[in-house]
């Protein structure tokens, strides 16, 4: 085997009293995709930041082409041929594609020191041609799809001298088709001899791409080897120390009468003629590709984007839901897809966040009660097993899975009868998914009616009691017998089945 492009040996990093990385060994070879797996808190992002020059290791060595190097800042990282696409990339939405690519490096200027706009456009075309993708370089970034924005980030990161491309959770916001497109690009880079470090949680993507796999747990490398030596089940075992059967737990629950019924619900340009029922204690899965209308239906039920037609019934009684306040009064709660921008305030504590959905119930001129807020936080920290130093810890300091538990707790505090979960495990690791789904299963066991949206089909089919499919805003077949046939559900999600049998 050739010399590694980059080799990390015994790397460690602390932040105050917290050990983020204890001991990591990693070899990245040219023309090879190396997958890095691990739970949130396993040190993956810290490792990425050390390669990017954001953090410097406290111990261990990093070598490029066999020579030990120091990476004090991102500029040096780029000069060594390392390009990093971070988990939360930064774009400038009001600038064009070409201008965003320009800002990734020194801006080309004329002798007069004025910006050379012709050179900016040429550089953008070259960067996109390197990936063999077509984007309108004059288009504002805010007009691009999530997939195209992700490709833009890769184009920004890559240059002609890139020898290692690091992708930290690149597919979190992408649909299945968009992921396939990204995989084709990664395969092309691999064929060109670029080493790729792929940090991900979706095991089907990992094993479709990876040549080698390394697993980190508690800040240390626990196993590393060729991908064919692993299975998804064994990888999960290394990550969390338990079998894959515990990742998507589903308790048997005796279902009660119909609690929620939707008849002919529609909203112009989003979805049309949607009808289904959901019973007490039932987890109803809403399956579909990104853009199928599932989130818009959730918004309609919660009053964020009220439906134009149809009716909603709770316990057989028609209700009007034109605002979230009305939805909450009827016992409907909604956990949004983007927890960081819509679900919680990361700059504030757990005790601050948990009562936010209860503000309307407080007396109009009443005073906030810090003591009551802390008691509420302490109660849900214990009930949901939120891993934290206490109610005063900032949300931004929690792992993704624990942030998601706080979002769910915020809405459980409203004592809902219907809970809508929109992609509740997006961007969290396998172990945290198990905890969230165990919680969902327990809530159903207590009699809550749960509508579950997920972009991961395995997750949806494992957890749901029934599944309703959607394709381009239209309702498709329903499936009510477990275990579900994944092929049939996928066919319905992609419009290959026309009959409806709810």
Automatic annotation (TrEMBL):
The keyword 4Fe-4S does not apply. One of its GO terms (molecular function) is ATP hydrolysis activity. Residues 6-243, 253-497 form the ABC transporter domain. InterPro entries: AAA+_ATPase, ABC_carbohydrate_import_ATPase, ABC_transporter-like_ATP-bd, ABC_transporter-like_CS, P-loop_NTPase. It holds the Pfam family ABC_tran. The keyword Cytoplasm does not apply. PROSITE patterns: ABC_TRANSPORTER_1, ABC_TRANSPORTER_2. Keywords: ATP-binding, Cell membrane, Membrane, Nucleotide-binding, Repeat, Sugar transport, Translocase, Transport. This is Rhamnose transport system ATP-binding protein.
């Amino acid at each position: 085997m050739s010399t590694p492009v980059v080799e990390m040996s015994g790397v460690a990093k602390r932040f105050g009293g917290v050990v983020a990385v204890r001991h990591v060994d990693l070899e990245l070879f040219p023309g090879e995709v190396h997958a890095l797996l691990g739970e949130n808190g396993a040190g993956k992002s810290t490792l990425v930041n050390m390669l990017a020059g954001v953090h410097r290791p406290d111990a261990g060595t990093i070598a490029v082409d066999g020579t030990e190097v120091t990476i004090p800042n991102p500029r040096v990282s780029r000069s060594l041929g390392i390009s990093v696409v971070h988990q939360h990339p930064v774009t400038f939405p009001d600038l064009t594609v070409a201008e965003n690519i320009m800002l990734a490096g020194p801006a080309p200027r004329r002798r007069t020191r004025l910006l050379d706009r012709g050179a900016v456009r040429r550089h953008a075309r070259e960067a996109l041609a390197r990936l063999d993708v077509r984007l309108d370089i004059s288009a504002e970034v805010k007009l691009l799809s999530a997939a195209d924005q992700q490709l833009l980030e890769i184009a920004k990161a890559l240059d002609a001298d890139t020898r290692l491309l690091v992708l930290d959770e690149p597919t979190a916001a992408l649909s299945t088709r968009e992921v396939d497109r990204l995989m084709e690009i990664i395969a092309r880079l691999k064929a060109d001899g670029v080493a790729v470090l792929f940090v991900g949680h979706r095991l089907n993507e990992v094993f479709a791409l990876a040549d080698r796999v390394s697993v980190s747990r508690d800040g240390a490398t626990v196993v590393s080897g060729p991908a064919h030596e692993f299975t998804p089940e064994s990888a999960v075992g290394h990550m969390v120390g338990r079998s894959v059967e515990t990742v998507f737990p589903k308790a048997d629950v005796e279902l009660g009468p119909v609690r929620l019924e939707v008849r002919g619900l529609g909203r112009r340009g989003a979805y049309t003629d949607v009808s289904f029922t959901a019973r007490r204690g039932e987890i109803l899965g809403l399956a579909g590709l990104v853009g199928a209308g599932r989130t818009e239906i959730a918004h309609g039920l919660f009053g964020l984007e009220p439906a134009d037609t149809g009716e909603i019934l709770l316990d057989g009684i028609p209700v009007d839901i034109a605002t979230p306040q009305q939805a909450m009064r009827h016992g409907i709660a909604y956990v949004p897809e983007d927890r960081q921008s819509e679900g919680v305030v990361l700059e504030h504590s757990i005790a601050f966040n948990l009562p936010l959905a209860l503000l309307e119930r407080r007396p109009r001129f009443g005073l906030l009660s810090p003591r009551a807020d802390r008691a509420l936080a302490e109660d849900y920290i214990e009930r949901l097993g939120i891993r934290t130093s206490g109610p005063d810890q900032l949300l931004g300091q929690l792992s993704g899975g624990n942030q998601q538990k706080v979002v769910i707790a915020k809405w459980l505090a409203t004592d809902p009868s219907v809970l809508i979960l929109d992609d509740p495990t997006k961007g969290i690791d396998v172990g945290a998914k198990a905890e969230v789904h165990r919680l969902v299963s327990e809530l159903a066991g207590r009699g809550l009616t749960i509508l579950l949206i997920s972009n991961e089909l395995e997750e949806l089919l494992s957890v749901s009691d029934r599944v309703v499919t959607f394709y381009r805003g239209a309702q498709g077949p329903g499936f009510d017998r477990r275990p579900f046939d994944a092929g049939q559900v996928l066919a319905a999600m992609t419009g290959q089945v026309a009959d409806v049998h709810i």
